[in-house]
Design goal:
141 residues; mainly alpha; elongated
Length: 141
């Protein structure tokens, strides 16, 4: 009984930590999407430096990102959202590497946000933990 209770509280703790990671990623990506949808001058200028020219392109990227974030935030479609956000962030990282952006700027931010996305969904989604179980290695005697 005590073992089952400990397992339950561990799973609750994982779920809360997962929502914390997911929440931080969702807030960051939602803010990024909103900036693109508003086509702020800084977004349009930095997009042009990457080869994404125009207000329309910024808004289209904002729509795509908003859809991906919404799918990720909804528990039923969180895994699909994580896959789509990985693709989106991978494209962003590739675009920055193509123009030789400093590694510590947008490139690492994309990698860190992607890590938060996957850590969050892994901790809050039992189906994903079943698909990719984390097991302790056995002690060799």
């Amino acid at each position: 009984m005590a073992h089952a209770l400990a397992r339950s509280s561990t799973k609750d703790w994982w779920r809360w930590l997962g929502w914390l990671f997911s929440g931080l990623a969702i807030l960051f990506l939602a803010a990024d999407s909103a900036m693109k949808l508003m086509a702020l001058p800084v977004v349009v200028e930095s997009g042009a430096a990457l080869g994404f020219v125009g207000v329309d392109m910024a808004r289209r990227l904002g729509i795509v990102l908003a859809i991906c974030v919404a799918l990720y935030a909804a528990p039923r479609t969180a895994i699909l959202g994580a896959v789509l956000l990985t693709a989106y962030l991978g494209g962003a990282v590739a675009a920055h590497l193509r123009v030789e952006s400093p590694l510590v700027s947008h490139v690492l931010v994309g990698v860190y946000v992607g890590a938060f996305v996957w850590a969050g969904v892994f901790l809050r989604e039992p189906r994903l933990r079943q698909l990719f179980p984390v097991r302790r290695s056995e002690q060799s005697a």
